[in-house]
Amino acid sequence: MPRSPRSLLIALAVPLAAALAIVLTAPAPATADRVVIGGHPARTVEAPWTVALASRALFGEKRSGQFCGGAVVGPTAVVTAAHCLSRGVLGKDWREVRDLKVIIGRNDLRKKDGVEYPPARVWVNPAYEGDNRAGDIAVLTLGVAVPAAYTIRMAGTGDQAYRPGERAAVYGWGDTEGDGTYASSLRTATVRVLADSVCESAYPGNAEGDYDPRSMVCAGLPDGGRDACQGDSGGPLVVRGRLVGLVSWGSGCAVAGRPGVYTRISSVADLVAAHG
Ligand code: ARG
């Protein structure tokens, strides 16, 4: 007797359901190996210029009060994202944060190694627009010079490090799962610099964002899976040993077709030089 269409459907549906169950219950690849999302542990010696911005008064003792990242670009100059010092992040004016610190040389935020510097001066780009998020840069000036080994060179305009396809590394202590799970130790993820056209079509100025190639650069993987996330902001994106970007924004984290957007360092290098 020929099988009825119904039983054929079930015959197909059962293996499909079984396959789905495997996909759904299999552990996500490399859960223990995720920054940054999809990343892996970084050693401070590989990225000594990666710093944490912290306030224990605002963000608690446990992870040294870390709330953003940053990068050392000169003996006393540290760059971060302007939005890290916004009311939205701090809940108050940054000038009212009495225990703002730049932490250098601490891989594990639960430990005490490295040095905590209160910034001697803070400059937040007054042109930073909350609307389209262009010019997301702030400069913290340290009162003491740090050794040259702790600094990273900024990429200039036309640097080949901005070519699409270049391999890029982002560093941070931010959310590793996209659900508020913050890293205790520094992590890094490898992504690729993307063409401006890709970023513009991902963020054409709709509710998800407005990509501005003059002041931003974006990076990610075609299928997502690796990205910066909340808490990584202000942290470095590095290509060929040069600082090319600072974690700025994105729609979700590690979502396919929604790359991470970074402050384009070459576009703010003059501002950094003037205020560092
Ligand atoms: N705005 C976030 C922060 O303050 C950074 C988000 C980066 N998002 C991304 N998908 N790359 O930490």
UniProtKB/TrEMBL annotation:
The keyword Lipid biosynthesis does not apply. Its main location: secreted. InterPro entries: Peptidase_S1_PA, Peptidase_S1_PA_chymotrypsin, Peptidase_S1A, Serine_Proteases_S1, Trypsin_dom, TRYPSIN_HIS, TRYPSIN_SER. It comes from the Bacteria. It is found in: Secreted. GO terms for cellular component: extracellular space. Residues 36-276 form the Peptidase S1 domain. Residues 1-32 form the signal peptide. Keywords: Disulfide bond, Hydrolase, Protease, Secreted, Serine protease, Signal. One of its GO terms (biological process) is proteolysis. SMART domains: Tryp_SPc. The keyword Membrane does not apply. It holds the Pfam family Trypsin. One of its GO terms (molecular function) is serine-type endopeptidase activity. PANTHER family: SRCR DOMAIN-CONTAINING PROTEIN, TRYPSIN-RELATED. This is Serine protease. It comes from Streptomyces rapamycinicus (strain ATCC 29253 / DSM 41530 / NRRL 5491 / AYB-994) (Streptomyces hygroscopicus (strain ATCC 29253)).
